[in-house]
Amino acid sequence: MRPKFLTLSRRDFFKGLVIAILTAIITFLTDALASGMSLDLQLLGKVGLAAAIAFLSYLLKNLFTNSQGEMLTPEPK
Question: What angle (nearest 5°) sits at the alpha carbon of residue 53, between those of residues 50 and 55?
Fold first, then answer.
């Protein structure tokens, strides 16, 4: 069962974490391949920022989705 409009479940946090990790890995691989694999603090910061943005984006999307899967629509009565 999906959470109601403006609520989040534990499953949402888990799925958001998976999305954040995958985003971080893909960002790291893309930057590493493009720059010739120079691992430095700046690259890790960019990867962490991309992961945080992906996590928050996923949670916000789920927060504003009702139990019917409709975005920005209150729960049907």
Answer: 110
- Per-residue pLDDT tens over the stretch 25-75: 998 888 888 888 777 888 888 889 999 999 999 999 999 999 888 999 898
- DSSP designation for 5: T
Backbone angles phi, psi at 65, to 5 degrees: -115, 135
5 vs 54: CA distance, rounded Å? 20
Q: Which two tokens stand for residue 11?
A: 């499953």
| Model confidence, pTM | 0.80
- Domain boundaries defined on the chain: 10-63
Distance CA 6, CA 74 (A): 8
Q: 1: burial class by Cβ within 10 Å (0-12, 13-18, 19+)?
A: exposed
